[in-house]
Specification:
293 residues; Rossmann fold; 10 helices; 16% strand; binds iron/sulfur cluster
Length: 293
């Protein structure tokens, strides 16, 4: 019997030169995700990254796995399709705050209520970096950018509260420079049976000079050190997010008895779609056609 050599971090890396600016928070998210996959011992060929458009959408190019670089805001439906086609795969959707919480917002909300077994990593830098610095859905009120020269007059999206209110079963927030905690969050998210949102504070060092590493180091509260914090308590989670204006890190909420979307489908069968007969029963088909006549 031949034994497989143990996986190393090199197995999750590619030779693609990095496109990101030096110091970009996305480097920390990439490193944490690679480490999480290694520590979970998930072989690269069992991972599919579905990435959106934006600086963060490049992440799939840097991880040795299957990678779909999809269109703007469409990570959710593509990731769901991959998961339904092969439920054995670890499916990770990844993108930025603009991709996920603006053009992708409709898909995001429906993914939350459906609860497919997908991990969604949002690299949140509160600005559009790829298009050179416009206000994004998570930009702070008053934030001056090229598109808001007199300061943003819009209230920012609160993704964590929105997710919990919509029925999310796993909600967490990490910080790209807090590697140890981010790795543990990502491991828990991948292991969670259902949809796992990991909003990751990932500073844009080029275009966001307000929400910097130092800003977050001064303002973030670590839920892991908060006495009595229980991530299975949904009301406590929402209350804490409101009290701290979402400036927290850690697992915010986790529903222990989550059952993924694909397991609740009528006629659920565990094997991949490719291994199933997809022939339509002619009697059922005729009945369906007749119902429209
Ligand atoms: Fe990162 Fe900002 Fe540079 Fe984009 S523009 S790579 S988000 S630092």
């Amino acid at each position: 019997m031949t034994t497989q050599p143990a996986l190393t971090i090199a197995d999750y890396k590619t030779d693609e030169p990095s496109w990101w600016c030096p110091g970009c928070g996305d480097f920390g998210v990439l490193a944490a995700l690679q480490k999480a996959l290694l520590e979970l011992a998930i072989p690269p060929e069992m991972v599919t990254i579905v990435a959106g458009i934006g600086c963060s959408g490049k992440i799939g190019n840097y991880i040795n796995s299957y990678n779909i670089h999809t269109t703007h805001g469409r990570t959710m439906p593509v990731a769901l399709g991959v998961k339904l086609a092969n439920r054995a795969l670890t499916v990770i959707a990844a993108g930025g705050d603009g991709d996920g919480y603006a053009i992708g917002m409709g898909h995001f909300v429906h993914a939350l209520r459906r609860n497919p077994d997908i991990t969604y990593v949002v690299m949140d830098n509160q600005i559009y970096g790829l298009t050179k610095g416009q206000a994004s859905p998570t930009s702070m009120e008053g934030f001056e950018t090229r598109s808001t020269p007199q300061g943003s007059i819009e209230h920012p999206v609160r993704p964590l509260q929105l997710a919990i209110a919509t029925g999310a079963t796993f909600v967490a927030q990490g910080f790209s420079s807090k590697q140890k905690q981010l790795v543990e969050i990502l491991k828990a998210a991948v292991q969670h049976r259902g949809f796992a949102l990991v909003n990751t504070i990932s500073p844009c060092v080029t275009f966001n000079k307000v929400n910097t590493y130092d800003y977050f180091k001064a303002h973030l509260t670590d839920l892991d050190t908060m006495p009595g914090y229980d991530p299975t308590d949904r009301e406590l989670a929402i209350r804490t997010l409101i009290e701290h204006d979402e400036l927290v890190t850690g697992i915010v909420y986790r529903k222990p008895d989550s059952v993924p979307f694909e397991d609740r489908l009528p006629g659920f069968r565990a094997e991949p779609l490719a291994a199933q007969s997809l022939e339509v029963d002619p009697v059922d088909f005729e009945r369906m056609v007749m119902s429209f006549r």
